[in-house]
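I am writing to request your help with a piece of structural work I have in hand. The matter concerns a single protein, recorded as an amino acid sequence and a row of backbone structure tokens. Could you please explain, in whatever detail you think fit, how the structure tokens follow from the sequence? Thank you for your consideration; the sequence and its tokens are set out here:
>
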Amino acid sequence: MKRILLCMFALAMAPAGFAKDAKSTSYLHVGKPSKGSVCQKVYLNLAAGFNMSTGIIGIGADVPVAEFVTVGAGLGISTWGSKYTVGAKYFFKPCQLGWGLGGGLTYNGGLPGYTADMESIYGVTQHVKLDLLPITSFYFAGYRYVSLGKGNSRFYATLGWSVPLTSPKFRQTDGDPISDKSKTVLNIISPGGLVGGIGFAFGLGR
């Protein structure tokens, strides 16, 4: 699955090369839309939050492929190993400004041999070993982008929901069976649930 997402990353970024010479992108705008201006060919993103498509903190890129549509990919770190994502966004204004909606797939690589002190079914805290298994999820989110000054940079906030598509999430390999309380803790830090965060997008390649 990791290789598939990496291939999808490459395909998502491919339009950036074609966009450089495409005359059809003249409908795009920089900053506040104005007649005759053009948008950036690609936006590089730096984002942080919880359950974000690029993890706790990560990087990504969005490529405009239509007047209000971008496709993108990214990677980052999370509580469940490295995280990769591919997705698309629809904006109600050109050039990644204002409100937008987006969705896509994320892949968390997991953490084999994860060790922690957790409560067992006997009510005793003990040292256990688990394999945090790879998880693929679908996410849907709303976005709000605002221009930073008169430049090509954007600040944005996002809120959404992520749904795991694979199970189980973990496998215990050592120690007494963990309690339901411990399983709840693992489920809280695992991929899925409420998505929220902030980020910056930097426009490149007029």
About this structure: The chain has two helices and eleven strands.
